[in-house]
Structures are given as C-alpha cells and as structure tokens.
Amino acid sequence: MSEVTFDGAALPTKERTRSYLTEGHTLSSWLFTTDHKRIAILYMAALTFFFFVGGLAAALIRLELFTPEGDLLSADGYNRAFTLHGVIMVWFFLVPSIPVTLGNFLLPLMIGASDVAFPKLNLTSWYIFMAAGLLAVYTILVGGVDTGWTFYTPLSTAFSNSHVVTAAGAVFISGFSTIATSVNFIATIHMLRAPGMTWFRLPLFVWALYTVSIVMVLATPVLAMVLLLVMAERVLGIPFFDAARGGDPLLFQHLFWFYSHPAVYIMILPAFGVISEIVTCFSRRRIFGYSFMVYAMLWITVIGFMVWGHHMFVSGMSIYASLVFSFLSFIIAVPSAIKVFNWTFTLYRGSVAFDSPMLYAIGFIGLFTIGGLTGLFLAAVPVDVHVTDTYFVVAHFHYIMVGGAVSAFYGGLHYWWPKMTGRLYPDGVARFAAILMFFGFAFTFTPMFIMGFLGMPRRYYTYPPEFQIWHVLASSGALLLAVAYLMPMAYLGWSLFRGQRAGDDPWWATGLEWRTTSPPPKENFFAPVRVDNDPYEYHPEDVGPHHEHKEPFRTQGEVG
Amino acid sequence: MSVSPQAMHEALREPWHSLHRQRQGVSFGVWVFLASEVMFFSGVLLLYAMYRILYSDSFATAARESNIWFGTINTAVLLTSSLTMAVASEGARAGLRRLTLWCLLITALLGLTFLVIKGFEYREDITEHLIPGPHFKLPDPTAQIFWALYWLLTGVHAVHVTIIALVALFNFQAWRRLRQLTSPAFEGLALYWHLVDMVWIFLYPLIYLPGRSG
Amino acid sequence: MSGLQQEEPTTASAIWRSTIPVWLVLMALLTATLVLSYIPMGKFNTVSAIGIAVLKALVVALFFMHLKRPDPLLRLTGAAALLWLFFMFSLTLADVLQRLPPTQPGTVTPLEHGSMPSTGQRAF
Questions:
Q1: At what angle do helices A427-454 and A391-398 cross, to 10 degrees?
Q2: pLDDT at A44 over 80
Q3: Chain B nearest C-alpha distance from A107 (Å)
Q4: Structural domain of residue C2, as residue ranges?
Q5: Spelled out in words, what is the top-level CATH class assigned to the domain B5-207?
Q6: Which residues from chain C sit within 8 angstroms of residue B54, using beta carbons?
C-alpha cells in the first residue's frame, strides 16, 4: 500500500462533496470568479469553440484538395481558408491551449498554493482573450483575410483586399492575454511555492509552465509591435516596409519570425511537461535525468530566440546570416533530443500500463521525434532551399504541433480529467480514440512529406494530377483524425453526467495535485501543505520497480 | 512604519499570506511586465536602427525638422514627473498621506502637460506636412521612413503616458481612503511610470538630436 | 526586498533629500546631451547622445526604480530584457550588414510613378 498522506474518503461528507464546482451556481459566480480552476474551465470552453472553427477550416482545405482542380473554393476563398486555419489554430487554440487550461488549473495545486499570484489579473486575461476572439469571429464573418497566417509584407500592407487590420487586431489583443497569463505564472512559481517545494523538487510540468511563460513574456510583445506596424502602414499609409520608399519588407519577416519561432516553443514546451508527468506515472518510474530535463527546457527557452532566420533562408537574407541561423538551429535540436532520450530511458524497465493518457504520450514521443528530425533536415540550408514552401514543411510542423502538442493536450486532458471533474471516463473507448488518432494522423501527414519533397507547393489549391494520390490519402486520414478528435468530446462529455466518480488519486500518482479531493475545493487543499520529497518517487532510488504489482511509492508532500 | 494593522489587513489579497510578500510579488510581477514592454519597443527600435544605418544622411536631414524646444521641454517634464512619482511611492511606503496625495496629483498633471505639449507639437508637424505620403515636405523618400517611425514611436509612447489616468485614479482612491497607502499598487504603478520615462529618455536623442550639428 | 533591510527614508524631508539630487543629475545630463548635439563631432555625436541616454536610464533604474537595492531577482529580470534585445539586434544586423548591394533596400532606384501612393485604398 502507498504511504497515504491524504485520504479524501475519510473526510466528513459535507467536505467530501464540496468542491470548486459547487461554490455558487449562478452565471455571475462563473463570469466574475477569481478561482483559477473556474477560469481554466472558462478558457476550455472558449478553446473548444476555436478548435472547431480551425478544424472546419482544415476540413474545407482537405475537401478542396481531394481533386486537382479548384472545384470547391475559389482561389481567393482557398487563401482565406488556409489563413483562417492558421490564425485560429495558432493564436486561438495552440498558443493558449495547455497553459491556460491545464496550466491554470494545475499550477497552484502542483506547488501547494491556494491560487495564482494575481487572481483578478487571471480573470482579466480571460476577458481579453474573449474580446480578441470576438474580433476574430467578426473578421471571419465579414469575409476573412487572405494573407496567410504569416501576414507577409508587402501583400498585407499594400495589396491585400481583405480584412487584414481586424485580423491583425484580434491577434494583437490576444497577445495581451498571453502576456498577462505568463506574468501571473512567473510570479506564482517564484513566490507561492509551499514550504519545502524547492526549485529542483518542482514537477516538470511546473518547470515547463515557467519556461513557456518566459518565452511568452519576451516574444509576444514583438509580435504585437510588428502587427501594429502592419496595421499602421495599411491604415495610415506610412512606410515601414514599403520598398518604393526605401523600406525593407524583410525587416517585417525578421520581426515576425522573432516572435513566431519562439511561438512554436510556446506551443511545445507545455506539452513536454505533460508528457513527463504521464510517462513517469504510467511506467511507475522516476524520470530519468531530472536536472537535464530542466536544463534542456531552459536551453530551448534561450536558444529558441536565436534561430528565427531559418524561416527566411530563401527570402533574400544574407548568406552569412543564413549560416549563423542554420548552425544555431542544429544546436537547438540537442535539448529536444535529450528529452526524448530521457523519456525513453524512463520507460525502459518500467512497469508500463497502457491507459489512454499513456497511449497519447507514447504517440507523442514517436511523432515528435519524426517532426523534430525533419526539422533538422530543414535547418540545413541546401535542403531547405529545395523543400521550403512545399508540403514537406507543412508536414514537419504538423507533426510537432498536431502529433506533438495536440496529442499531449489530449493526453493531459485524459490524465487530469478525473481530478478536474471528479469523474472517470470509459477507458476502452478512450484507448480506441487514442490509437485512431495516431493512425489518422499518420495517414494525413506522412504523404505530405513525400509530396512535398516531390515538389507540391503549399498554399496551392490546384495541383498536377500526379499528386492526387497523396492528397487523397491525406484527406482520408484527415477524416479519421476528425473522428478521433470528436470521440473524446463525446465520451468526456458523457462522463460528466454518467461517469463513475473518481477518488482523489485514481492513477496512484505522486504529485501534490492528487493529495486533495477530485474535484478540489475552492481553496485547493484542506490543510497547509508541506513538501518533503523529490517528484516522481515511484520507487526507491537504487531499485527499479517490479513488474507484478504496484510498488509502494512516496508522495511528494504532506497535507496537514 | 506608521500604519495600522487594520490598514495592512485591508491591503492584503488572496492568495498571499503576508503583505510584505504581496508587495514583493507585485514588484516582481511588474518588473516582468516591464521586460515585456522593453521587448515591445525593441521591435520598432530595431527598424529605426536598421534604417538609420542604411540611410544615415536622410535621417539626419529628416530629424532636423523636429522641434527641439517641444522635445527638450517634454523630456524635462517627464523626468520631473518621475521624481514626483518616486516620491509618491516612497511616501506611500512610509505612510505619509499628504506627501503621497500631492505628489501623485503633480505626477498626473505633469503627464497631462506632456500630452498637451505633444498635442501642440503634432499640430505643428501636420501643418508642416511632416506626414509621410504624397504631400510630404522633404523630397527624399527615405526621409519619410524617419517620420513614419516618429509618428509611430511617439504615438505608442503617448498611449503609454495615458496611464496617468490610473495615477489619477489611485490618487482619488487614496484620498477617499478606498485604497490603503500600504497597497502595493503605488510601487507597481511607479515602476511602470519610470519605464514610460525611460522609453522617452531613449526616444529623445533618436528623434530630436540627430543632424543638429550638421 | 531580499531580506537585507535597507534604511528606508521615513520622513518627507528624507525622501526629498534622497530623490532631488537624482533629479538634478538627470537635468544636468539632459542639458549636456542637448549642448553636445550642436557640436559637430561626426560619429561621436550619435555615441554621446545614446551614451548619455543610457546613463540617464541607468540613473532612473538604480535610484528611482530601486535597483540599487541588492535584489538579485529584479536585477536579473532587467538584465534578461537587455540580453534579449541583444539577440534581436545582433542577429538582424548579421543579415542587414551582410547583404549584397543589389538586395539592399534603397540601392535600386524605384521607377518613377509620380505621386501615386504605393498603399492602396481597400477594406480594413
């Protein structure tokens, strides 16, 4: 039996049934809450909506690409479809996703605090996000924007006839929400850790949230400025990137990618944290190389800001700069590789259980590795010259963002669902959905590597007939993927009403978030928290776990 | 510190356990936000730096069209407002009510003065045809880039100066005892105000001083 | 802030005595930068203007923003912003300064097109 330091079943009934969900049932108790857990739920609702919008745009794209001719959408319509898909998925789904839902919910719990540092700022950041979202929806309704999510000049500033300013404005406003959340997280982690929770006892998910917040706070303002410049040039006609008056369109790309490359680390770092939590719990192992995992994330945080030029190898940038960026891009592959090695060594000789969160995590490790390796191909300038602006690049970043980040998001959702809602979901269906997602993903995006290398350009809605086989494979895979994404929404929603009630610690995990009821009370813990141990002490340091039964393990802290 | 326990209790907010820690937290949080503000301005300053390297002569010519008097007086106004804001923040920490209230008021008024002078300057710039576009005053197209950057830099900075509305609000709240002097808000706002001043400290030599000796 | 309790001024006159000298230094630097800008020194004009601005900013940061107090966390935060600025500027300069002349903006004269604005009028 585990050393039980908290037993929710032993609480009196009134305490056992009280939770953050039962504190107030009115709409205003939700809309004016400062409870980080409720704010996480509010964000989850908004993000689900945007996931659907971005997914619908993807469906339009893949439907159009079934056939070589442009039969479903016009050329302009197709431009707006892929722009919509990119803008919504990047800024209104992936960048916020794990930090504002799982991060908001779990961060105070994992460090033993009762809330984030600035709860009212937390609510404000949700409202800012909703305002940005409203402007984005307005932009879609009035016809959308056709510049691609990258807003390249001079198309966006001088020639586009679409709603660039409202689209850029929506993204601009959402940036403030991101900055507010990240300031909150950084302050929380520095200042509100429970007694005994030293920096190197933090769960890796908390380290991931810390490093991602640093990236967010330093990168997002640059995006805000560059979008402001584009809006100013477009509305007022003042020349920042106008070549006819001596401006340099390339400077737009420098500023844009200075944000947007760290943005991809914003999208993947929290996923790293989620995977570390899942892999340790479901292999009953301490993480292999905890401090290297931390240093790897810090390394990514710093070097991630120095590689943006690898998006600009063919733009007319100097060869010298291209070589510098290429070199730095090779270097930044190393910390990600360290993390993949460490997860693998954590699994080795572990007592692995294949519950649905673990299936998502294992899928992540495989898909992220492929995505990362293809990133190395792209970091080599000659290879990039061949495959840039083809489907090879599209496949690469979807492997990381969809195969990686979205898988991790679903995995984390399945892992912490019992904690957040107090309900268990049917695991058989969940495992099926996870495996379906893996195969759907493979069918959708593997053909893209091939056709990209063969020359299929991205953002094109017509193509030579010899590419059709790959496109049909990809579009069929997309259908499977869509089903795999919808299924969890169905059974997770079902579980809210009919799911078996979860105990405090259904997965037998070590973290502090499991040392309270499921769902937690408003103040998170029933008594002051004290931390005595390192994270992930699933077995003694010098002994590996047995395979036959669940080993005794040490939870991270005392409650009370 | 001449502050009642009751005052300390009212300023304490969830989830903080001690006012001292909360004040530390707010200061740290504001500093992190200031780092993001530095990155915000760095984007357009990068543009300025690159274009100045490429077109140093036309930048010097274009900058000579700026009004050195408005610029220098505004710089002095903003530096003085930093003084009064610093005094207000220290006064709040020490519990000196009258000092805090007066200095907050003067800071807000100085900020307003800055905006008013800026307004006059903008009016002059407009009548002098210093707006980039077809009727621009100078013949060299790259000079328009300097003035594009001028409008954007000073415009965005002016938007930041409007935070004096918050200064006025905190002043009012402190006057009506709706906000205790022990609240971390005064130090936080002071830090932000000093950043606004620092941005202008850099804008001044970039906008008003190039080409003066030519 | 980090546990080392400095002697904070507690009376109004003490506060003024610790801040007015800082203000006087700032005013002196402002005068200096204004005067120096009118003296032809070539490249050194830019150096002195920006250098004095850096000094002013340092004075504001150390004295008004209390960075003189030994709080490593706040100093690290300020330094981080500067480091990231360095990343942005140095790598962009690596591009702009090393481009071949024909790809450098402003080196190819644009075609004469009268007073037509290059930004069109269209939807927001």
A1: 160
A2: yes
A3: 13
A4: 1-69
A5: mainly alpha
A6: 96, 104-106
